[in-house]
Amino acid sequence: MKSNRIKLGVDVFLDDRVGLFKGQRVGLITNQTGVSSSSESTAELFNNHPGIDLVALFGPEHGMRGDAQAGEYVPFYIDKKLNLPVFSLYGQSKKKEPDFLLKIDETMRTFDTEDSEKYPALEMLQDIDVLVFDIQDVGTRIYTFLATMAFSMLSAAKKNISFVVLDRPNPINGVTMEGPILEYPKYSSFVGLYPIPVRHGMTLGELAVLFNENYLEHKVDLSVVPMRGWAREQWFDETNLTWINPSPNMPFLTTATVYPGQVFLEGTNISEGRGTAKPFELFGAPWIDGDDLLKELNGLSIPGVFFKDVKFTPTFSKYRRELCSGCRIHVVNREKYSPLKTSLLIIKTVMDMYPDAFEFYSDYFDKIIGTAKVREFLECKKNIDQIVENFKKNLVVFKAKRKPYLLY
């Protein structure tokens, strides 16, 4: 269902809402995905607009330009092109070791579950009257941009300034929901903050209202500028918008499609393909025989996907510079494909085939999936259909809870 009529939140704002900022000093939280429907930078559009007094920029994980790797330290700097200060919202002073990229999986298992210095410090907001958020999300709870938005809303509330979200599509559609609801607050972290499913089927604007009404310690003066022309059932490639990598390891819509399940591999000693050209689509390990694994996985006849055996050598992260054998996941029917069920089947198959080699990084696996139950079910060798069925009751409850906050 292609569309030629979509206007993003930033387009609608510049067309109709600029007057909201009259006499106000604006701080913009954005990155390389913050663009108009014609691919013009929101930061540049704001900076050049006579009715907008843009005074500061804030970048999430990966930086405002999106050129920093996962977990990489980005110091304060002045953007030369815009002549504006840029503050990091991803650990402002926690500089990593020089070789952190080579062991990024270890860094993520610690730093990415902490919230320290991952919010706008109140002194950063000293000369700001309104904070604006314009970043493309990937539709999965396990992504740090969600927490950056929530923490920024909380800082704005404490500073008594307004917060505006310029809405964008959920790239993997706004209908489908999957996975366990995060057990809150026990498993709350920077990679999963509030009790929503792994695949939530909402836009960031909708989530902002849900968070503000239900979970923020202090409510913020929140405005959401909705899109025009987007339908919930649309995938990103049905919008005629240009895909821009939200992060270095999210290069394609196909990556975002498999991510709601393949991200679980981060909590195991199976490589999720970081350090390759196809992160999350490739997976394997030096101790796996890809041909044997291929036969087992394709023999399961998992709906919507098939597998091909591959060999790859990650340039960083798990098994860096080691030859890995494994598979590539090919989604042939994304409406039938369940990323959650597929990836749990992958993990279970590897566990059964290589019981002496496979490992969970238990604390991190439980954090990213939002519960210990999934790992415990897998370790008890429960049927995957039983595990997936276990989530459905809570998904029905969440579907009802989210309904008042849906904008489309």
In short:
With 408 residues, the chain is of the alpha/beta class. The chain has helices at residues 9-17, 42-48, 104-111, 144-159, 204-214, 253-262, 290-299, 339-353, 362-369, 373-379, 384-402, and strands spanning 25-30, 53-59, 77-79, 84-88, 130-134, 162-166, 178-181, 197-199, 221-225, 282-285, 305-312, 324-331.
List the helices and strands and how they pair.
Layout: H1 9-17, E1 25-30, H2 42-48, E2 53-59, E3 77-79, E4 84-88, H3 104-111, E5 130-134, H4 144-159, E6 162-166, E7 178-181, E8 197-199, H5 204-214, E9 221-225, H6 253-262, E10 282-285, H7 290-299, E11 305-312, E12 324-331, H8 339-353, H9 362-369, H10 373-379, H11 384-402
Parallel strand pairs: 1-2, 1-5, 2-4, 5-6, 6-9
Antiparallel strand pairs: 3-4, 7-8, 10-12, 11-12
Helix pairs in contact: 4-5, 6-8
CATH class of the largest domain, named: Alpha Beta
Taking the alpha carbons of the first and last residues, their distance comes to 16 Å
Number of domains: 2
What topology, given as strand order, has the largest sheet?
Answer: 3-4-2-1-5-6-9
Summarize the amount of helix as a percent range.
25-40%
